[in-house]
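Records of this kind hold a single protein each, on a pair of labelled lines. With that in mind, the following record should read easily:
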Amino acid sequence: MSDNPVTLEFLARMIRGVQEEMREFRADIADFRDQMTVQTAILMRLETAQNSMAEQMRAMLLQHQRFNNRLRVLEERGAE
């Protein structure tokens, strides 16, 4: 047999160590979850901003095209 027998105290210390590691792991998981929530919120805000910017650009393009059409009509009237 071994010189160091496995005692209940030894097993209890080992279990307490594993439990402490599990508590730390759960805390790390909670931190990671919080970070993911923040990153997701940032991403959603940026996506919304990008979509709004694209919509504004389309509106400006249409506005510019209408202005050009009106200007072209005025120039044609003046050339007659």
Notes: The two ends are 115 Å apart (CA to CA). The chain has a mean pLDDT of 93. The helical segments are 8-79.
